[in-house]
Design brief:
Oligomer: single chain
Protein name: Prostaglandin E synthase 2
Helix content: 40-55%
Shape: globular
Number of strands: 10
Function: Has a glutathione-disulfide oxidoreductase activity in the presence of NADPH and glutathione reductase. Reduces low molecular weight disulfides and proteins.
Number of helices: 15
Largest sheet: 7 strands, mixed
Radius of gyration: 21 Å
CATH architecture of the largest domain: Up-down Bundle
Pfam families: Glutaredoxin (PF00462)
Bound molecules: glutathione
GO molecular function: prostaglandin-E synthase activity
Order of helices and strands: HHHEEEEHEEEHHEEHHHHHHHHHE
Family: Belongs to the GST superfamily.
Amino acid sequence: MWQPTFTLLRKVIIPSIKANTKLFYSSKSRLPRSTVKLTLVSASVGVLVGAGYGGYTHYKINVKKSLAPVENEEYPFLQTAPVYRPHYKIINDGDTSNLQLVLFQYRTCPFCCKVRAYLDSRGISYDIVEVDAVLRQDIKWSTYKKVPIVLAKVDGGYQQLLDSTAIISVLETHLRDKSSELREVVQFYPVTRYLNDAGKDTTDITNKYFIMHNNAVPDEREKAAENEEREWRQWADRVLVHTLSPNVYRTAGEALETFKWFEEAGGWRQSFPGWECAVMVYGGAAAMWIIAKRLKARHNIKDDVRQSLYDAANEWTGAIKKKGSRFLGGEQPNLADISVYGVLSSIEGCQAFQDLRNHTDIGKWYDDIKNTIGRKMGKVVAATAHA
Ligand SMILES: N[C@@H](CCC(=O)N[C@@H](CS)C(=O)NCC(=O)O)C(=O)O
């Protein structure tokens, strides 16, 4: 579904941007040579950022693997730190994790929101790098080209962590048993590359929904809870996330509102000249409005797309009600609560989210987990110095 869009962007638009890099990063006074080019460049930024939800389909998780894995990659480990520019720092004075992490993200990407929700829930301090969605200069050093990426300072270098679910599982495994070094933990989550049904080179991470246990073997009750948590984490990635694009880009007006929110939440006005923001917002909204219809068909979203979103929310709250607890995890959120919250938080500023609150009873759980995580989160500080 996303392949044609990305192919067009990568093969036609991006080379044109690269050839005009100075133009793209030019100061406000240096305007592009042609309006057509300007529109293409800016709209493509908009589309890629808007692809936050839909772009996920470009990277399939555990899809039917028609071919055996063709290659095993060593988990990326860097001896020296890449050059990166943190935009924000989350500073938590009570952080006892001893972790030094950098999150490379798109602010409103649901997978990045999921990782932030996790890091904040654990009270971890970390740096945030906002990646430019078209040229992705800030992740040039990485062979893996999606976000989120987390870089962890470890003995002897920097351990790269990839894929939102795997990032959470690796860090959680480490935090539950700090004697397990991150470099060792990642060995349990091997990166695999394979050709998918469409013959496309695809990356996946084995065991990514599993938390590893060292000596503390879980009893039957804990195992059942872990199974449930795992199933709902998968549901967040495989069901919930696919309901988002068709909803936030449902009509041209909604798509525009969504992009205006991206502009605000992503701080585009601080990073791009005003004319460029305007074209990104309008161009991106138009493109995503069209593309969202194809995503809707691909993921069997109902014609009344809101209904699919409400159905997903009801399925989730129904499971919590059945347990009779505050969260799926009981009195405290578990990784499934955090994942579902993270994914949903990516549309918090959209009309679809307001409608969701009005037509389902997810609001109570949502506010509860948001406050719970918010109380543990460090303070956000704009980073001025470059690392
Ligand atoms: N399974 C990955 C999906 C990550 C993903 O698809 N990220 C999108 C942004 S939301 C991306 O980087 N797309 C760029 C591309 O596909 O080239 C995860 O959970 O982290």
